[in-house]
């Protein structure tokens, strides 16, 4: 699109407000709104200033002037405002006109450029599968004198005996019993369909939607893969639309990995493949699971660097509540065909050269997609550059249900780290692969580690947990 296309959109949709959005390192969106009559060619081409010191992870107060510049191809007529509004994602620039190194979208763009410069492939395709919960009620508090959370869902198993406002119509979802039930057990079908319609109206190609395994409203909507940065754009828009439609229906959507104790958590399985033009590079008819040598090397890079990679793909303390054995969580650092207990699965149903891909199952949607996808690509590129072999490194293939293996055999399989602190320590030790081509900078990595420790890990470690009263009050 060009500036005239944007003005044509404003005219044809009678747009009154233009909303400009940026994404901070943690993955939260921020916006500023400008009356459409004040939007000029200069604003669309040069951008508008903002205070970078007020965005967590950006600038300090003595050096805070920054610019957000609209990405015209992301223009989207937003249906969630009371007046007609056009929304655009933005790139972040320094006042001197150079791109800002901590802008997550810039990191994604640099990763795509490095792939080409390295002569490995022209295009990386990414296709995430985001799981989320739709709750009816969410309350929480964390203060000096109290700490609690409370969630509720009309379809939750714990409500099978409750006296609700009207008659209890039963058909609750049992724990781990939510995969593909038809209504009335699936009480969220119409809401998900409303989400799908809004996603399609926004230009996102939707493949399917369904209820997921857990009780209390776990859902999934799958959208079509695309190039790395475009898929990250779509992921941010997807999360925005899912949350807004849930709110429209008087409900709350969350992408927290583990909001429920004792049931499956929500992941973000990320499908990945490399192409040169129309030529798929991950397919070999004679290879294991029809994988090429290049694909195996890519897998080896992902699994070798997983302990540090998780600092971006699973970047919350809650991520490690999900990554425990027994809830279909992919905690095992092996690869396998069609095996959902492995960290890397190779889909084999209806396989063709162009559909050949790998699926990294460990990530979750607390990840900033720009940063997480870029880090995955850099890990895969490192495996290709070093021609690493996953079998030689002890990463499989392992075509067994790992959860059913004897303890002695299971103990030989490496697992993902068990805490966010441990993956940040791994990132400190293993990050050279991210620095190649200037994709990530040491400044960004150090800032990320400091930010996560100071704002997430340390505050959580310093607070008593409600369950500790159950365990220790009488000692």
TrEMBL record:
Its main location: cytoplasm. Gene3D superfamilies: Glutamine synthetase, N-terminal domain, Glutamine synthetase/guanido kinase, catalytic domain. Residues 13-97 form the GS beta-grasp domain. One of its GO terms (molecular function) is glutamine synthetase activity. The keyword Nucleotide-binding applies. It catalyses: L-glutamate + NH4(+) + ATP = L-glutamine + ADP + phosphate + H(+). Residues 104-475 form the GS catalytic domain. InterPro entries: Gln_synt_N, Gln_synt_N_sf, Gln_synth/guanido_kin_cat_dom, Gln_synth_cat_dom, Gln_synth_gly_rich_site, Gln_synth_I, Gln_synth_N_conserv_site. Its EC number is 6.3.1.2. SMART domains: Gln-synt_C. The keyword Ligase applies. Keywords: ATP-binding, Cytoplasm, Ligase, Nucleotide-binding. It is found in: Cytoplasm. Belongs to the glutamine synthetase family. This is Glutamine synthetase. It comes from Alicyclobacillus dauci. The gene is glnA.
